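Ticket opened by: R.M.
Priority: normal
Category: complex prediction / small molecule

The reporter submitted a protein together with magnesium ion and asked that the result be attached to this ticket for the collaborator who will pick it up next week. Submitted input follows.
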Amino acid sequence: MDSRNVRLAVIPGDGIGAEVVTEGLKVLEAVGTKVETTTYDLGASRYHRTGEVLPDVVLDELRGYDAILLGAVGDPSVPPGILERDLLLKLRFEFDHYVNLRPVKLFPGVATPLGGSRPEDIDMVVIREGTEGLYVGAGGVLRRGTPYEVATQESMNTAYGVERVVRYAFEKALGRPRKKLSLIHKTNVLTFAGDLWARTVDRVSLEYPDVATDYYHVDAASMFFVTQPERFDVIVTDNLFGDIITDLGAAVAGGIGLAASGNINPDRTAPSMFEPVHGSAPDIAGQGKADPTATILSVAMLLDHLGLTEEAARVEQAVAEDLVERQTGWASRTTHEIGDDITARVVG
Ligand code: NAI
Ligand code: MG
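Result attached by the on-call engineer:
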């Protein structure tokens, strides 16, 4: 990677997406990595202008990049499901982003709604399966709009798909000090899928004697996220449960403005995509109120994925220092000012 520029596709998207991505790129540039960026106009405004969501030629072009940075897509003016299914989910499925990596980490100085929790209590990584489960779009509808309507939505779980994400999770756990992996599911009710997940974790665990494993039903896990977050280190879970518990994770770790994520193709057969967990926030768009920190932390994950671990650590450190200072008067800073301050710390 050092010998050539990183080729980065940027999808600012809608609402605050463009605002936070600008700051993320500012930090990326400050880190000194040679990056060549190409911006793609995708999202609600393109949909309204041309009716297109993700044309095949754009999809093919995106495939050629080293990574993708996405702001957020979505607008109340677009019918629900169009941009989510045909843009975001399509990218995740087409590029085989089978690991959706979402750290849940309380930085020092950040306020959490969990009064007594300290940073050492909230430091986990959620690995959400990204290409299967209830999100594959399997199912259908009969007699729509009548009193006899039938709607089905099926969860797809393949031995191959479960095993590859479980293996990734064990490797991740092995690389962390606590070496602990928790499976979160609902095996007592979702017995077919749950059985596959549980057996897979048990079988793969034999190859990782140094990693301790345990299991939580998703409802109990939700409770423990709030009452005893220190129980968790690395979590592996399916697409739907992972979607839900990571919003809870974002809330306990200081809010949606700080939550970063990576849609990762660990086999590197297509580019991975990094994005803040939050959406386009139409309520604050265009006002300079958006917190760019989640995007900047997503940039750190991007650098890490590209093997630029020292650069990634510098960005995370700059964010950590900025967060400590926020205890006094951060609310008065604009999106740009936060980006500038973190950039200044990266430059040193
Ligand atoms: P949202 O995450 O956009 O906003 C929820 C609340 O959090 C709002 O009050 C917003 O002002 C606030 N917020 C979000 N990001 C913030 C930031 N960086 N700094 C400060 N405050 C922030 O979720 P919402 O309102 O449910 O969805 C808005 C649109 O975004 C919808 O069209 C939705 O489909 C889309 N969306 C897109 C996602 C993506 O592109 N990955 C993810 C989630 C939602
Ligand atoms: Mg979500």
